[in-house]
Amino acid sequence: MSFGRFVLKRSLQGIGVVWGVVTVVFALRFVTPGSPINAVAPLDASQETRQAIAAELGLDQPLYVQYGQYIFDLLRGDMGFSYIKGQDVTTLVFGRLPATVELAVAASVVAIALAIPLGVISATRRNEPVDYGATLLSLGGISTPNFWLGIMLILVFAVEFNIFNTSGRGVNVGDVALSFVGPEPVFGTLLTWLAYITLPAIALGTYFMALITRLTRSGMLDELSKGYVQAARAKGLPQTLIRYKHALRNTLIPVITVLGLQLGTLIGGAVITEAVFSWPGLGSLVIDSINDRDWPTLQGSLIVIGTSFVFVNILVDVVYAYLDPEVVND
Amino acid sequence: MVSSRVIRNLKKEFRQSGLAKLGLALVVVIVLTAVFAPFIAPHNPTDQQLDQSELPPIGFSETTERTSSQMVDGEIQTVTEEVEITADPDHVFGTDGLGRDMFSRVVYGARTSLAVGVLGTLLAASIGVPVGLLAGYHRGRVDDALMRIADISLAFPSLVLAVALIGLWGRAAVDIPDPFVAAGLAPEMPESFVLPITVVIVVGLVNWVWFARVARGEALSLRGQEYVKASRALGADDNTIILRHVLPNAVTPIIVLGTVQVAAIILLESSLSFLGFSGTTLSWGFDIAQGRDYVSSGQWWIASIPGLAIMLSVIGINLLGDWLRDALDPGIEGEGGAA
Questions:
Q1: Which of B19, B164, B315 minimises the CB distance to A298?
Q2: From CA A141, how far away is CA A260, in angstroms rounded?
Q3: Do A151 and B292 touch (CB under 8 A)?
Q4: Contacts of A63 (CB under 8 A, 6+ apart)
């Protein structure tokens, strides 16, 4: 199979999964107790509103027509209307998405930047104090609830030392970039951005830092015991080159795959981190929509979350196939 | 299934690994705490004593401002004075905002965490293992369908799916009478244990797919083994082969996954009760949510202590999982199920 065909095949599979995601979300309408109108209309809606909603949802139509209409609307980018928020679900969800992406990316950057060196050092200095330290740190990291870590960070860095902000987003990353365009760079915006994002990014990123450290350490140990590493050593190549160019590269390939699969955990973690830090992202929207019984918003958020997961995993597989062409032939 | 070789490996690994000993010790302490909660807790964890609220843990004291009205020179004035609140030896971990004993709440919280963790894992395994074994053994359409279902359910983060399902279904709980209290051995304690049954069902439904994946992988590799082919040639039917030959050989990785899953589900349960999606108020996550409101006013212990309890339990179970994995099957991949 050629690389192009692999990408095509994987994309088609992905479309299939997204279709499944949409179908499950459509079906949620029917697991709600009572009439689907109750799920959509505000509790105090008048009879006219309820009829209007019933007509708009096409509830008088047969099921397959409703389903077809739902998919057709989605393809046009129409995810329905939130009567509770008084807004288009599409506008609402995509308005919140950038904040979550920003938080998730910041958390991943913190996690990866710390974890890979830590994992490598831990593996190359096996059974030395630094290895024990890293092992304990990563054990603690995968065992700590991130919402609790967030509260502890607030307790120490915001309440005791008053360094960081604990609630909201401040400025978005786009404004930070803009503040550097122009004759004089302004550091104020950058500092504000950091004051808001640092604590939530650490709270969300710690689990991943711990996970990647563990994966990198065990992967490196595995690679370093292999024949090609011994051959390279025998040939007299410098240790640094062997470790970072050869062994680390081979270690990172499976790490990337696991990270793709863990994206769900990252988004799940974002939901609760956003709740702790009042971060105005998709996660808080999900919780709000459940508490307000705002099902159209919940459905829209679930579709966007599920689709992003599928999309990122296709991307991971394609990168993987590019790095390791053998995958294509499996 | 459990051969003498397995037991030998377990013992050998246990002797060599200090972390395995720590893990086992933590898990034993937590299990005993959960089972014998009525005897360990010094107070009823739900008893509110408002005159003893916000007491700090032993070894700490807390200064707080108290305003009162006093007669000064014939006029009523509001006086603010600094009061030092010292710990009460009767409340080792202090008390919460409603004067409930934190130590007793932590002890009882172990019951909720363990019950949800173990029951949720059993439910997930009892769905995932049969489905995975059948799919991996038979291949074909059943297998394709399973893999697609697995793909779809992986696309929803566990926590998001769990929150959505509990939001739709409500927060049901069942009261299970406490046998010790019923027998009159601990009359002061709560008469029943509240099991958040919706949470158990939802975490099981959300996590079965990890078991299905592992069981399927094992069945795929075992179906080609000589002894499976031999019993097929001897005329054994598929279900017998799966039960007698495939399942026993797939048990090891399933047990290792199960251990990791108990830890993951304890974390998931604490997240759910933190967000208010649980059927019980006697849970570590719930207490952290309560304590969050006191963080900025100085009562740090209300949110901190239950979190430490979660962390120590999950560390213990993860260490136990590492020990089982290293001893039973060195070939199993390190990181499986996710929170």
A1: B164
A2: 19
A3: yes
A4: none
Question: Does the beta carbon of B292 lie under 8 angstroms from any beta carbon of chain A?
Answer: yes
Question: How high is the pLDDT of residue A185?
Answer: 66
Asked if the model's pLDDT at residue B167 lies above 70, the reply is yes
E strand or H helix that includes residue A87: strand A87-88
Chain A nearest-CA residue for B285: A148
* B311–A contact, CB cutoff 8 A: yes
Beta-carbon count within 10 A of B329 CB: 14
Does the pLDDT value for residue B338 go beyond 60? no
Query: Among residues A155, A153, A161, A159, which one has the least CA distance to residue A197?
Result: A153
Contact B88, B101 (CB under 8 A): no
Per-residue pLDDT reduced to its tens digit, A76-108: 888 888 877 888 999 999 999 989 988 998 998
Nearest to A156 by CA among A214, A199, A219: A199
Beta-bridge partners for B80? B67
Q: How confident is the model at residue B52 (pLDDT cuts 50, 70, 90)?
A: confident
For B322, the closest chain A residue by CA position comes to: A139
Burial B39-48 (b: 16+ CB within 10 A, else e): ebbebbbeee
pTM for this prediction: 0.87
Cβ-based contacts of B16 with chain A (< 8 Å): none
| B167 inside 8 A of chain A by CB | yes
Burial grade of A117 (CB within 10 A; 0-12, 13-18, 19 or more) = middle
Residues of B in contact with A218 (CB under 8 A): 334
CA distance A108 to A200: 12
Using DSSP bridges, classify how beta strands A87-88 and B192-195 pair: parallel, antiparallel or unpaired.
unpaired
Q: How far is B207 from chain A (nearest CA, A)?
A: 12
Q: Which residues of A touch B170 (CB under 8 A)?
A: 33
Rg (CA), chain A: 24
Q: How many Cα atoms occupy the beta-carbon half-sphere of B56 within 13 Å?
A: 16
Contacts of A269 in chain B (CB under 8 A): 159, 339
Sign of the alpha-carbon torsion through B128, B130, B131, B132: positive
The larger pLDDT score, comparing residue A75 to residue A171, is at: A75
State the pLDDT confidence band at A145, using cuts at 50, 70 and 90. Answer: very high
* B337: pLDDT strictly greater than 50: no
The model's pLDDT over B173-185, given as tens digits with 9 standing for 90+, comes to 888 888 888 888 8
